[in-house]
Structure formats: C-alpha cells, structure tokens
Recover the amino acids of this structure.
C-alpha cells in the first residue's frame, strides 16, 4: 500500500472534509449532538469547502491532489452501488436490510416513519457516506490495489461493529447479520478498486501527448458516474415499496443524556410519572416511545422493568418519581398519587375513593380512548398541569 507524497496538510484537510459524513453519525451515536444538528452544522458546510479545495488544487497546479479527489468521487459512486446491489436479494427475501438507510432520513428530518422526503434524504446521506469513504481511500492510497481496497472495506465493517449502529437501528448481531454485512463491505472494496483503477486508466487515455486533459473523455466519465446514484435510487424506491410500512418506528433524532425511553401504552401512572419528571426533576427531559417488550438500546429506560423509576408490586412509578422530586409533602400531589397508585396497582380500590375515581375518569375523558402515548402525551400532560393547579388552589384556601 503506497501512501501519497503530497504535502500532509493537503491530504489531512481533504480527508477530514471527506470524513464529515460518517463523523456526523458517530457524533449522533455519542449523544453529543442531534443528527439534524450534526448534518446541518458539519456535513453540509464541508461540501462547499471540499469544492473550494478542489478549485484551489486546480488553480495552483496540484494535479495529483485534484486527480485523487476525482478518483474518489467517481469510484465512490460505483463502490456504493456494489455495496447495495449485493444486498438486494436479501431485501427481496423479506429482510429489511436497508432499514438503517431509511432511518438516516427519519432521524435527520425528525419523523417517526419513512416518507418519500425522508427516503430521499436518507439514501442521499448513505450515498455521501460511500463517496466519503472512497475519497479517503484514494487520498491516502497512491496506487489502488485489490487487497488494500478490500481491507479498507472490511475495516469499515469492523469499525461499524464497534459502534452502537446495530443496536440503535434495530439489527440483531447474529452470525447472519455479520456475514451479510461483511460480504457487502468486501463488495464495496472490490468495487472501489475496480472503479478507481478504471478511472485512472481512462484519465490517462484522455490526456493528449502534451499532457493536457481532453474534454470529451472527462465528459464521458462524468456521464458514467451518474449510473451509480440512478440505480441506487431505483433500489431505494423498491425497498420503500416493500418495507416502509412494516419497519419499526424510527429512533429519535437525538439520543443524548436527557432522553428517556418507555413503552407507548398511555397508562395514567406512566403519564403522571413523565409529568412529574418534566415538572419538578428534569425540565429538559425528552421521551421516546417503543412497543411493549422492545429491547431498549439507547437512552435511559423509564417505567420499564429495568428502569430505576418503575412501578412495582406495591408502588407506582408516580410514587417513585415523587420521592425523587422531594415533593411528598405537597398536598395537591397526594390525590394524583392515589389516583396513579389505584389505577395501576389497586384498581378495585377506586370505588372507595371518590376523589381518585373522579380524577381517573377526568384523565380518561381527556385521552379519549387514545392507544398510542406518543399521540396523546401532550393532552395527558396538559390534564395534569390543569388538575394540579386546581388542586393547589383547593388545598390552599
């Protein structure tokens, strides 16, 4: 593997700019920034900077740097296409192998389910990852060889397995998952090597005897480059048609430390505990809802069997949150605590507590038969706000 001989600052700057696509995903996994913040604050500004670097290389006669950037851009299109094509049969076998790409779009646009717009964004982001990795390879490796390209592809797979990629996007780390992903990355490496080698050969043929580039040869290379994104767009449309309605809800756009994850069943105790946390403990708390019995792989579990704040045989989640908030002596919270306890732990006791029963009926009327907490959380929280204000007024007279 022969590394380039260009001044290190040129390689370093170009490589850093090329890496921003995948860096945004790593930042998202780390919880430092939301995915939209990382994409709009880091990836998008890097694109014009990369273009300016290419213009600078052309204007200052750094033909080698410019050629390597062109090779990475061109080869990345076909390497990404190879990476996707090999997985199409798996998708047609009923496995939503491309769901992470759909999730790229949903987390960037902050929507819970794939839409045509989110699919365009997600697959564009996926394509930018593939091209970015190819740019990094051609910048660092002066003479592409099949072994170095395959090792590059396999190295990407190994690095991916060291991140929470599988857990966040709902893949099970099974032997089948690892084998399919490894095979796809090998194909990416082979595609990268073949495409880069072809690019360099055609670029050599396109030059005249005086060393100047011929416009016709470059135009044909540019036209051929479009084959990659066009075929990938067809794969994206096919996957969306097959799987968009069946894949689980998207991860949230921000998985930072103030994210709590709970089940999406709108139970009074759960809504009350969420209200207590937001009102008295963590005003910045955000809640993400998953199907019951789902494996929670990001965020802090809340009102789940493994959570610190959870209902038990003798205590409601509201009671535990009340202890954490240090509000046990607030008389306006006691009726709400009894209501949550009785509806979740001792429902038969409601008949003997007129106030708790009235509160439970009021909350049920506000939720109006809602079965998905994400859709009616705001109504539930508003009810707790209004009822708490009424109770405070009543108990302070």
């Amino acid at each position: 593997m022969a590394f380039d001989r260009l001044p290190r600052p040129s390689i370093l700057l170009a490589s850093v700019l090329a890496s921003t696509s995948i860096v945004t995903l790593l930042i998202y996994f780390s919880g430092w920034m939301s995915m939209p913040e990382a994409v709009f604050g880091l990836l998008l500004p890097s694109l014009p900077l990369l273009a300016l670097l290419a213009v600078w290389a052309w204007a200052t006669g750094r033909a080698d740097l410019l050629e390597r950037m062109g090779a990475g851009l061109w080869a990345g299109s076909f390497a990404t296409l190879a990476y996707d094509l090999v997985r199409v049969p798996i998708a047609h076998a009923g496995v939503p192998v491309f769901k992470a790409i759909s999730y790229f779009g949903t987390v960037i646009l902050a929507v819970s389910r794939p839409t045509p717009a989110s699919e365009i964004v997600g697959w564009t982001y996926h394509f930018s990852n593939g091209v970015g990795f190819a740019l990094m390879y051609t910048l660092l490796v002066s003479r592409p060889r099949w072994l170095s390209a395959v090792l590059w592809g396999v190295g990407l797979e190994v690095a991916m397995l060291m991140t929470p990629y599988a857990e966040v996007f709902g893949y099970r780390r099974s032997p089948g998952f690892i084998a399919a992903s490894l095979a796809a990355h090998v194909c990416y490496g082979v595609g990268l090597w073949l495409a880069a080698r072809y690019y360099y050969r055609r670029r050599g043929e396109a030059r005249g005897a005086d060393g100047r580039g011929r416009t016709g040869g470059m135009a044909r290379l540019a036209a051929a480059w479009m084959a990659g994104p066009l075929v990938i767009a067809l794969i994206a449309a096919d996957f969306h048609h097959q799987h968009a309605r069946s894949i689980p809800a998207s991860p949230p756009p921000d998985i930072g430390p103030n994210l709590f994850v709970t089940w999406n069943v709108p139970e009074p105790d759960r809504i009350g505990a969420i209200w207590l946390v937001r009102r008295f403990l963590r005003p910045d708390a955000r809640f993400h809802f998953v199907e019951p019995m789902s494996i929670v792989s990001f965020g802090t579990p809340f009102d789940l069997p493994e959570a610190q704040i959870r209902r038990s045989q003798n205590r409601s989640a509201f009671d535990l949150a009340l202890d954490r908030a240090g509000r046990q002596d607030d008389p306006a919270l006691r009726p709400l605590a009894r209501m949550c306890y009785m509806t979740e732990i001792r429902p038969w006791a409601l008949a003997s507590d007129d106030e708790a029963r009235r509160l439970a009926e009021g909350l049920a009327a506000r939720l109006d038969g809602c079965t998905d907490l994400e859709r009616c959380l705001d109504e539930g929280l508003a009810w707790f706000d209004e009822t708490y204000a009424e109770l405070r007024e009543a108990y302070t007279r």
Summary: The mean pLDDT is 91. The first strand starts at residue 259 and ends at 263. The chain has two domains: 8-243, 259-395. The chain has 16 helices and three strands.
